[in-house]
Input
Amino acid sequence: RVHGDIYSTQMEEILALQQRLAEVQSKSNLHSLSDRNIVEIVEALTKKHDLRLIFTQDGKEYLTPDQLQVEVRDAVVANGRLNVVELPKFLNVGIEKVEAVLEEVVRTYPEVRMYESNLFTEAYVDHLGEEINEELSQRNHLDIGDLAMKYNFPSGYLRDLLASRLGSIIQGTIKEGGLFTAGYSQISGAKLRGILRAALSPIPISTLAKLHGLEEAELSSMIEDLAKRGEIEGRVVGQTFISSRFQQTQELTVKNFFAKNDFIAYSFLVKRLGVSKPKEYLRSLFGDDCLFLDSCCFNRSALSGIADNVTGLLKTEGFVDLKRWFSSALSSEDVEMLSSNHLELREVEMAEGYAFSISWLDELVTKLRQKLVDLIYAAGATTAA
Output
């Protein structure tokens, strides 16, 4: 079997050859040509007329490059999508021969497209779009990355394929990495509103974005719009949504703790109440009443009472363990900073968390000096005896 069009200048000879072959083979088997004879005749013709023929893998058939292009196109159309490595089993032609005509196939037949090693038809993409649209109508939102894995296309390339079918085959829109129905924003907004209204603790924007399949920036904008319309009570702080209800509870908790204990640790605000910038938050609540130490904020108004008590003890006892007058939750550095810089004690020496009255130290030194003198006299008298 010889397939395809041969150059016009050789057509008459080839047609004549075909006629002779048909006549000979229509006679009895005694006069028919063998396969080997036919091969020799075809080889002679290709050499004489410089014809380009492609041998099939089993060596029983020949076809021209033009015919190979037609058969590649037919195989792709019949299957919708094929990988290049699959074509040899359909065409009985070596992979290198197939690869040599692929560019011409895509150029000649606009219904066939090629991406990397995949050949597919526009009809295949239309069918793919119909499947995706059906799934989209049920779920309202699809992730393009997930679709790319499902259909074995790169995300960016699939996005372009789908974009060209929006409004026709696919009833939806593409935003960032997702495919959405027209009503998705309303549905998503209603769900988001319900979640935020019920929020009793801070919610990271990243968590909400993952839940709704949206970008964080877009979700933050949606939350701001809901707040402006008065549909939710709260605000976005940094990358977290904080409801007004939580803010009120948070503020009441902090004020009660501070009033009862005269200090509040930064770690408590961060870990227990979700405050990302504790010093700024405390300054907004207490202003100058807060003394900002290494690990906590201390109530300035509590210092005068502590100073009075410490001063009274210094007068009667001569020294005071300062740590006893502050919460054990305060670090030694915090106690030292408060004692040295804020208690405003006079006529004292401080060391290792203790305050010593200078007059008491002077009296102690005088007593020790007299004791030493007495001991020296006593030792001298004993030696003389």
Observations:
- Residues 82 and 119 are 5 Å apart (CA to CA).
